[in-house]
């Protein structure tokens, strides 16, 4: 089984790539290197420089490397930048994810982990943010999503 890590040359993504490689997993990375660095990756891990929303690239990587799982870290996370470029952030965090999911479904990949950012928790009442708060905000968003779930063919759940 090969795991595709998008944003795998970034700070958090590269740690996941190292953990997977250290565990003996086969890993491949797609990263546009806008905030990541190829030297963050362990030797021998294939890096495809490009956009995780490029469905042709993603489908090619999935088929060439027999990808069975995707871990998606290729989101934009800097809040002040998102205020300066809201459409760019929308494109990268929403449309890119949708395109990545489209490619995954077309290729039969139904294991997908979406990594988010602490920014989804808003302005916390307490710093550091207690573990409980890190559970409550995503659970509330998930509850809203589950109340009106989208249909994604090929995925048992989202």
Structure overview:
There is one protein chain. The chain has helices at residues 11-22, 55-65, 79-84, 86-106, 131-147, and strands at 2-6, 26-31, 47-49, 67-72, 112-114. It has 158 residues and is of the alpha/beta class. Helix 1 links the parallel strand 1 (2-6) and strand 2. It is built from 5 helices and 5 strands, in the order E-H-E-E-H-E-H-H-E-H. A 5-stranded parallel beta sheet has the order 3-2-1-4-5, with helices on both faces. The model has no long low-confidence stretch (mean pLDDT 83). The protein is 42% helix and 15% strand. The chain folds into 2 domains: 2-115, 3-Layer(aba) Sandwich (Rossmann fold), CATH 3.40.50.720; 120-158, no CATH class. It is globular. Helix 2 packs parallel to helix 4 (86-106).
User: How far is the first residue's CA from the last residue's CA?
Assistant: 21 Å
Strand content: 5-15%
**In the CATH hierarchy, what is the class of the largest domain?**
Alpha Beta
Topology order in helix (H) and strand (E) letters: EHEEHEHHEH
Q: Order of strands across the widest beta sheet?
A: 3-2-1-4-5
The CATH architecture name of the largest domain reads: 3-Layer(aba) Sandwich
Instruction: Compute the number of strand runs.
Output: 5
Number of helices: 5
Q: Structural class, from helix and strand content? A: alpha/beta
Radius of gyration: 16 Å
Q: Which stretches of 5+ consecutive residues score pLDDT under 50?
A: none
The helix content is 40-55%
Give the integer mean of the pLDDT values: 83
């Amino acid at each position: 089984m090969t795991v595709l890590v998008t944003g795998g040359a970034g700070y958090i993504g590269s740690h996941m790539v190292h953990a997977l490689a250290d565990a003996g997993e086969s890993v491949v990375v797609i990263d546009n290197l806008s905030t990541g660095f190829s030297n963050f990756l362990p030797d021998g891990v294939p890096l495809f420089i490009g956009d995780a929303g490029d469905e042709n690239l993603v489908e090619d990587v999935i088929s060439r490397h027999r990808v069975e799982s995707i871990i998606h870290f290729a989101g934009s996370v800097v809040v002040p930048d998102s205020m300066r470029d809201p459409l760019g952030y929308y494109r990268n965090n929403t449309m890119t994810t949708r395109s990545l999911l489209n490619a995954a479904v077309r290729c039969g990949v139904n294991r997908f982990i979406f990594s988010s950012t602490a920014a989804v928790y808003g302005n916390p009442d307490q710093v550091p943010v207690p573990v409980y708060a890190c559970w409550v905000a995503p659970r509330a968003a998930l509850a809203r999503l589950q109340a009106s779930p989208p249909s994604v063919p090929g995925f048992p759940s989202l």
